[in-house]
Write a structure and sequence with these properties.
about 350 residues, alpha/beta, three-stranded parallel beta sheet, 11 helices
Length: about 350
């Protein structure tokens, strides 16, 4: 059994992908070729955002977003300690300081009730993370941000395709950022990412920054980086996007089947999907004080499982200078101590999922 099945989809649509890739090989525009703009248009339509700017990776999308907002030395950006390191890494790379607030006990997303107390005169932006496939309470976060005239960047690397109050993830705040890393809900065959915004000025800055700050040939009004998207990845994503809505439905069904099958099991907490949310279950994650025993039981039956973010960011050695200690963010620490992600992808077989559930029971 595979933890994330990346092969079955290609068996289904591989021929169409090969045709798309061959067209790229024939025209030879391997960077920012016509498929890139075609993909951006399709993603704008899907998300409802005015602008989509594709980039080289999900990490670069966060970095470009912060650069466009002018984040730099002495600034603070508020985020969460329970996430992949990219979220805080890009803040520090620009000389700014990550400020952590704890996560909620139910959705494991940013606890919006703690947000306002973390805002200072140095706060430059707020970066909530849509963890494991669902969005935080974005209205509450946006409301607090608006009170202090702060931009909000949704780190939606794990939630593309999910909705909050009927609106798509990546179109819920000032900026939406996502990743097309192969294991993500909408994943390509390499590294890529995208930024979304309804702000014309920000969109223009994103486009400049991804080509070394270049406004037009040989004219660089701002600092940038090499953040361009590979045309072959855009071509691949164009075909995957055709089956993506169906995959989102399959993910929701599989998530519900897991939750139903594990409901009421003593010492296991299944994911809570927020009242206004749908989830794409980038990972289906349970909590248990007996995680190691469960993981061992699964391993004995050749069932893979993963403990994501088993060291939260505030306890990572690279952020030691922030001065945090164990106990500072108790909910994040509880989740990292007890979380276990189970096999999940749109093509997880019914019999395999039953085997996982039976092994846990």
């Amino acid at each position: 059994m595979q933890f994330i099945d990346l092969k079955t989809r290609h068996q289904l649509i591989g021929e169409k992908i090969n045709v798309r890739v061959q067209k790229v090989m024939d025209h030879g525009q391997f960077i920012l070729g016509p498929e890139v703009r075609e993909l951006e248009g399709k993603l704008e339509e899907y998300s409802g955002s005015k602008h989509c700017i594709t980039v080289s990776s999900g990490t670069d999308s966060l970095l470009i977003a912060l650069m466009a907002l002018g984040v730099g030395a002495g600034d603070e950006v508020i985020t969460v300690p329970y996430t992949w390191i990219s979220t805080a890494e890009v803040i520090s790379l620009l000389g700014a300081k990550p400020i952590f607030v704890d996560i909620r006990q139910d959705t494991w997303n940013m606890d919006e009730t703690l947000l306002e107390t973390a805002i200072t005169d140095n706060t430059k932006a707020i970066m909530p993370v849509s963890i494991f496939g669902q969005c935080p309470d974005m209205d509450a976060i946006n409301s607090i941000a608006g009170k202090y005239n702060l931009p909000v960047i949704e780190d939606a690397a794990q939630s593309f395709g999910a909705t909050y109050k009927g609106k798509k993830s990546c179109n819920l705040s000032t900026i939406g950022s996502t990743s097309f890393f192969p294991s993500k809900p909408l994943g390509c065959y390499g590294d890529a990412g995208a930024l979304f915004t309804n702000d014309d000025e920000l969109a223009e800055k994103f486009r400049w920054i991804r080509v070394h700050g270049q406004q037009r040939k040989h004219n660089h009004p701002i600092l940038g980086l090499n953040g361009r998207m590979d045309t072959i990845q855009a071509a691949i994503l164009l075909e995957i996007l055709e089956v993506f809505p169906e995959e989102v439905q399959k993910r929701e069904q599989l998530g519900q089947t897991y939750s139903t099958g594990l409901a009421g099991v003593e010492d296991i907490s299944t994911p809570t999907v927020g009242e206004y949310n749908t989830s794409v279950y980038a990972q289906y994650t349970i909590l248990s004080e007996h995680r190691e025993q469960i993981q061992q039981s699964l391993k004995e039956k050749d069932i893979p499982s993963v403990s994501y973010y088993s060291v939260p960011l505030h306890l990572q050695p690279v952020f030691e200078n922030l001065g945090h200690k164990e106990g500072d963010f108790p909910v994040a620490e509880k989740v990292e101590n007890e979380c276990l992600s189970l096999p999940m992808s749109p093509y997880l077989k019914t019999e395999d999922q039953k085997q996982v559930i039976d092994a846990i029971l």
